[in-house]
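re the bet — no i am not wrong, look at it urself. input seq straight from the record:
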Amino acid sequence: MDGAALWHSSRGAGSPPTRDTSLLSGALRMKNIAALVLVAIFMSPAFSRVVPDPATGQQKGAIEHLEKLAVQRQGDGADAGSGLEQSGIPTEETGGFKAFESQPAQPEANLRDTRAGAERGDAAAQNLLGEMYATGRGVVQDLVQAERWLRKAADQGYAPAQFNLGAMYYSGIGLARDLVQAASWFAKAADQGFAQAQVILGVMYINHQGVAQDPVAAAAWLRKAADQGVAQAQYLLGVLYSSGEGVPRDPAQAVSWLRKAADQGFALAENSLGANYLYGQGVPQDYAQAERWLRQAANQGLALAQNNLGAMYQNGRGQAQDYEQAVLWFRKAAEQGLALGQFNLGGMYEFGHGEARDYGQAAVWYLRAAEQGLGQAQNRLGALYETGQGVAPDLAQAALWYRKAADQGVAQAQNNLATLYESGKGVTQDAALALDWYRKSAEQGFAPAQFNLGVSYAKGRGVAVDEAQALVWTRKAAEQGLAQAEYNLGVSYYGGKGLDQDFAQAHQWLSRAAGQGHAEAQFTLALMIGKGQGVERDPAQAFLWWRKAAEQGHARAQFNVGIALAKGRGVTQDEREAVEWLRRAAEQGVAEAQFNLAQVYARGMGVSPDEAEALSWLRKAAEQGFALAQYNLGVTYAEGRGVPRDEAQAVSWYRKAAEQGFGQAEFNLATNYYNGRGVTQDYTEAAVWFRKAADRGDANAQFNLATMYLSGQGVRQDSAEALSWFRKAAGKGSTAARDAVQKLESAEAPK
């Protein structure tokens, strides 16, 4: 299959991880409501698109693929899948916000004092008491009481309480989830300079959560928090400068803010800063710096960074290529549930890089990533089902996974799905659907699909034949360097099919395909050079291209190399080597090679004469319908060369060759009918075959046919017709025919 062919494993102990919904309750167990809000925020859609510096173009490695995925918006909702899972979520230990932080157990006297202060209207005490009820520290946890006291403090304008009340609305714990109310309370706290509220409000403006989507407002709030030194805000502001959302795109400013956050040990910023150094965005490209920052983030357990670091080792960027290290880091990311890490680890197993090749393990990891919705993994899994590598072959499953990836816009999967619809494998055959999927893939610039779309137009599959469109799409694929398309375009110019014949253009495109190792292009190019079509005739150069194709197993090229070596055309004559190439072609079933090999053994050219071997190869060529071999095999039986003499067998082989229009066989068959050798004598049949040979210009057949007309054997007697044929034979140099003409003309002369 063009552009595809790449798997499954049953669910069980190695099942892909699901989202850890215990994170929210885990935040409460930490007795930290700020952490609760931050978990929700940092698992939100904003964080599915905050890894900066997406690579352009098609995927060239794991890092590019990661970043391309990371910038895609995954949808709305605080628990929308981001691919980050637990990576990079700020907590107290990793530099998270301190508002609403855990409080030590309250002595009874302190609790009384706090409650008394709260009841007197002290906002700080009301906030503290609300936190205690929310977290269950020093009192029985009671979210109703928590909301009551927090609201009292918030209504007095106490920023920490406004933030905490907003957090309860945002999370939906203790209150019905209400993002509008959450945004309102966060805004009140943010207006007072409360940095944590400014960050979350900025993210809500990015995500269209409780407020209209407004990147400019988001950037403004994030800058306020960033100026206060909040790492998360610095990081997000750097992301906005990378993408140009809400602020002018400015890679240098992006790096500046990312560095501020990274210098505080914020893992996501370290990862992004590493990516900037990797691609030279906003800073000079520096693999050492890229590796430094990615490693710092990876060592903090950030799966994205672990995946990226693995990719650096995989691609040999900044250090020697090291597949074992790549596997180590990919595995760390994969075991945290990062779909890209799982996909990349699967690839290492598939290709045997850093691990023994194991299609079963590849299928396991691809399945985990595929079930998380990673299109590239779905495509690979489909290919494994199609080929039966690592899983039982199942074309219906292949089609299912290809469809999932195709629906996400994965061009290779769209092409693969199209091939199944075209062939009816795993799906009901549907040429129109195949055409539609080829087009979707082709319009994304996927060269194999462009080529396949061109073939569909050329052959009228799912659409009316349209040679012009066929050439348009073939050219697009050829211009991207797809060798098969280059070859097809070259052949179109060579034969003038859909284009004006143009040997120079044919030579150009065939040369491009041949240079990529396309054997058929190498063979055709050699023919052109050998004939001087589009270029100066050059037998030596032709031989070089024939040899390249021959070394790839191209049978006709092997035959031509053998003939060139045997005759010294474009190369020093070498009969021994010629025999080897003729044998290779003969063993692939090239009848001409089999015939020539028979001649080699019959004459002892480069080998010892061997009549039996000669007969064996001659028979193989004859049985394939090669007329010259059939004729020669007939002669062999007629003369008893290496076989018992057998006129009936001779006639049988003469007839096969004669029915293909082989003149000498027609003459011999006629002679056998005339003389009754190996067949019942039949002058009429003899005349039929003599005429066929005579019409081809065989002088002996013309003479014999004239004789039969003269005597009326097998034909009506006709002296004029006889004279006509004698004259034709005489014109070919037959002395006997000239004599016959003179006699007939003398007899006809007036006395």
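see?? Residues 735-748 form the longest helix (14 residues). told u. also The two ends are 85 Å apart (CA to CA). so pay up
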